[in-house]
Specification:
CATH topology: Purple Acid Phosphatase, chain A, domain 2
CATH architecture: 4-Layer Sandwich
Strand content: 25-35%
Structural class: alpha/beta
Number of domains: 1
CATH superfamily: Metallo-dependent phosphatases
Strand order of the largest sheet: 1-15-2-3-4-5
Distance between the termini: 60 Å
CATH class: Alpha Beta
């Protein structure tokens, strides 16, 4: 009996290690949304969040090749691209290469504020050609489609009052005839987001709930959501009809616990 239990224990350990290794391998998640009035227009977005200065091959080649394969029109950087503990080098390599090829937009995350170097990070991003959004809206034309790209800071340092001011300020610059997008770090603020008529809201922060529970569509734990977190992975429709997309992010070696059933991801969103 003891020998049998020992082998069962070893098998369970082996299965756990295998699940962890599989969950280390990044994926590209494809999403298609019908948000445009005309059928002949298409916009492709690559959403990258929570890189946390993690390693994706020499020169970040694995991450860059994954994005290049998809040929996005726009790259959105949804916060915690840098980290408060790890050095900036790996993130800078990835971001510089992306910004050289694609129009790129960034909002801050909580770890970047925790670093105490947010101003330095934003200055570097702007020097690399990234548009840093902090309560602003950038209106662009892409493939014949007029898009309002709004972005807000993470509230970690600026506080909720200023965060709400940024929300109001950014939305006030939009036009209802345009495709209206909001880039934010935090997904759990759904009651606030539902006050505004955005077509699509994109966030990260939750790291997929660390352990993703497929049939329940919940994460075991996510920051600022606690246990059995809801807004951690994929698409959610808000009460006002806005769509919220939550990326699982790209953090690997910089996570509090191994990922399970929750591989890191680049999200590619095709808007028709």
């Amino acid at each position: 009996m003891k020998k049998k239990r020992f082998w069962i224990f070893l098998i369970l350990i082996g299965v756990g290690i295998l699940c962890w290794l599989i969950s280390w391998i990044p994926v590209t998640e494809h999403i298609s949304l019908d948000l445009l009035a005309t059928e002949d227009k298409n916009v492709r977005i690559a959403l990258i969040t929570d890189l946390h200065s993690c390693w994706y091959g020499s020169g970040q080649k694995d991450l860059l090749a994954r994005v290049e394969k998809e040929q996005p029109d726009i790259v959105l950087l949804g916060g915690d691209i840098f980290d408060d503990v790890r050095k900036d080098d790996l993130s800078k390599v990835a971001v510089a290469a992306l910004a050289e090829k694609y129009p790129s937009y960034y909002v801050s995350g909580n770890h970047e504020w925790w670093s105490g170097r947010m101003d330095e990070m934003k200055a570097w991003l702007e020097s690399a050609g990234v548009c840093v959004l902090a309560g602003e809206c950038e209106t662009i034309t892409c493939n014949g489609c007029i898009i309002d790209i709004c972005g807000i800071d993470d509230p970690t340092d600026i506080g909720i009052s200023r965060w709400r001011e940024q929300m109001e300020q950014a939305y006030g610059q939009t036009d209802e005839s345009h495709l209206r997008l909001l880039l934010t770090h935090r997904p759990e603020m759904v009651e606030e987001y539902a006050k505004y008529d955005y077509d699509l809201i994109m966030a990260g922060h939750a790291h997929g709930g660390q352990f993703w529970i497929p049939f329940l569509r919940k994460g075991v734990f996510a920051p600022d959501q606690g246990l059995m977190a809801t807004y951690v992975n994929g698409l959610y429709e808000l009460p006002n009809g806005s769509i919220l997309e939550v990326s699982r992010g790209l953090a690997r070696e910089r996570v509090p616990a191994p990922r399970f059933f929750n591989p890191p991801e680049v999200v590619v969103i095709d808007i028709h």
